[in-house]
Amino acid sequence: MARVVKVFGTLRNHWKKSTVAACALSYGGHWLYGKHCDNLLRKEACLVAREYGRQQISPQEQLRKATVILNPAACSGKANTLFEKNAAPILHLAGVEVTLVKTDYEGQAKKLMELMEQTDMLIVAGGDGTLQEVITGLLRRADQESFSKTPIGFIPLGSHNSLSKSLHILSDNQVKHITSATLSILQGETVPLDVLQIKGEKDQPVFALIGLRWGAFRDVAATIKKYWYLGPLKTKAAHWFSTLREWPQVREASVSYLAPTLRPPDLPEQKPQRPHLMYRIAHRLKNYWYPPIPESPKAEEPERWNERMLSTLELSIHTQNKNPVQTRTDDSLLVCVEPDSFSVGEFITVGEKKMEDATAFTRKSLKLEASACQLNLPEEGAGFYNIDNEEYEAMSVEVKLLPRKLHFFCSAERREQLLTQVQ
């Protein structure tokens, strides 16, 4: 008992050191517990992957081949470690033959896609920028019609992983997010995603899965990192300081757009059976003695472009990939135009919401559905675009929708959640 009293007396006499030691021990314990939980998540995912690897295949079958495009610079240079610890063991245990290709500089993924050989699946390990480079390089290929049928997996390793919300189970735990995304690739379920083709007057087209942003909210979002020292107030501060420099931050532009097109029914690809030999002979003889009369070509109706002059704080053009399992009657992209009548308070409030979801719009927003649109900007002072969270110099462009162009692996659990939201 005397020893216990002596210990408490020492702690009381040295309360400052005791407080620091208690804080350090608490932090260390919490850190170790977090590491232990992460290891349990990895172990659980590896056990699931091992079951896929134990599945028997016939002697004629080959192992599934996957080409992984990894951006080591993603997530502040941590992407390579995150992939090797959380995703690579799952792929190997599942019996996937992995070819790992690491990018060395920005834009290299586009060039690599031009040279890449056919594979069973393509896996993009990085963020929005890496994914945008890969699909741009893929759809610029001469054989893109056949190559675009290759299923694509996305392992979220970047600072921005916008598409992950549509494909994977949402989680604040990074290890769980990465392992669940990798397991969704092994499950094999895919969803079709729309693609935007964005083409300027001179440059090659750029392709996007999320969309294009131009305006005041985009410009403020690019400056928020400068106010890191304000902590949770940095977003509000960045928007407020921008109003002090310039208000109102109105942009002038004109948009021409085509009406949406009807979506054809989703029918499975079935190869028609070859007719019987006698039927083919009779059909050929009939065409020989009574050749069919060619139909006169129908005159194509001219495209009807609708034009609108806009005065806005921000204009965005984005796909409807937010919920890829939703049943739609039309194939369309969304043009969202924010009004120029926001007060400073509304500007700050809406800006905070757009930081959480860039595709969100307000009740005052003008929304247009189109199959293609032309965005005409002033020649000087147009600023910059964000295309899938990557910065480009703003210029007049034509945006065309490529409906259901690519197929991405999607988690079965996330698919059920999205279907529930639709209902």
Please, could you describe this protein's structure?
The structure is a single chain. This protein has about 425 residues and is an alpha+beta fold. It is about 40% helix and about 25% strand. The chain contains 14 helices and 18 strands. It has helices at about 1-15, 15-55, 75, 80-95, 110-115, 130-140, 145, 165, 175-185, 215-220, 235-245, 275-290, 345-355, 410-420, and strands at about 65-70, 95-100, 120-125, 150-155, 190-200, 205-210, 210-215, 250-260, 260, 305-310, 315-320, 330, 335, 365-370, 370-375, 385, 390-395, 395-410. A 6-stranded antiparallel β-sheet has the order 6-5-18-15-8-10. Strand 5 and strand 6 form a beta hairpin. Helix 2 (about 15-55) packs parallel to helix 4 (about 80-95) and helix 2 (about 15-55) runs parallel beside helix 9 (about 175-185). The radius of gyration is 27 Å and the shape is flat. The mean pLDDT is about 85.
Give the SSE layout:
Layout: H1 2-13, H2 15-53, E1 65-70, H3 74-77, H4 79-93, E2 97-102, H5 108-115, E3 121-126, H6 128-139, H7 144-147, E4 152-156, H8 164-167, H9 174-187, E5 190-199, E6 206-208, E7 211-215, H10 216-221, H11 234-245, E8 251-258, E9 261-262, H12 277-289, E10 306-312, E11 314-318, E12 330-331, E13 333-337, H13 344-356, E14 366-370, E15 372-376, E16 384-387, E17 390-393, E18 397-409, H14 412-422
Helix pairs in contact: 2-4, 2-9, 4-9, 5-6, 11-13
Summarize the model shown.
With 423 residues, the protein is of the alpha+beta class. It contains 14 helices and 18 strands. Strand 16 (384-387) and strand 17 form a beta hairpin.
